[in-house]
């Protein structure tokens, strides 16, 4: 026995589905009532359409957590590029400045003065 989620046949999106998706793309946190008002459909119809598209994998919702607000510090992604170094070319000084890693929840330690 297979469930409807296991059905490999893709569900065609009709005009209402497209309007619902466009509305959610513009306002991802809109309630079913707000999407229904924007599309002219009944709230329960919008809810069933969204639930069907979620269930079949046609759409999905994701959330991004901001590390500085949940107390785990700041996450950063850095990328750099450089030309290859040859034996006749001296290595260039690094323009990378180290970034201190300290969570906002951790207070800065006072620097000790040693003389």
What does this 3D model show about the protein?
With 115 residues, the chain is mainly alpha-helical. Helices cover 32% and strands 0% of the residues. Helix 1 crosses helix 2 and helix 2 (32-39) packs across helix 3 (43-55). The protein is elongated and about 70 Å long. It starts with 14 loop residues before the first helix and ends in a 45-residue tail after the last helix.
The gist of it:
The protein is an all-alpha fold. It has helices spanning 15-26, 32-39, 43-55, 67-70. The model has no long low-confidence stretch (mean pLDDT 74).
Primary descriptors:
115 residues, 4 helices
SSE string, helices as H and strands as E: HHHH
Specify the biggest β-sheet: none
Query: How much is the radius of gyration in Å?
Result: 26 Å
In the predicted model, the low-confidence regions spanning at least 5 consecutive residues are none
Q: Beta-strand percentage? A: under 5%
**Basic shape:** elongated
Question: Helicity, in percent?
Answer: 25-40%
Instruction: State the end-to-end CA separation.
Output: 79 Å
Number of strands: 0
* Structural category: mainly alpha
User: Mean of residue pLDDT?
Assistant: 74
Total DSSP helices: 4
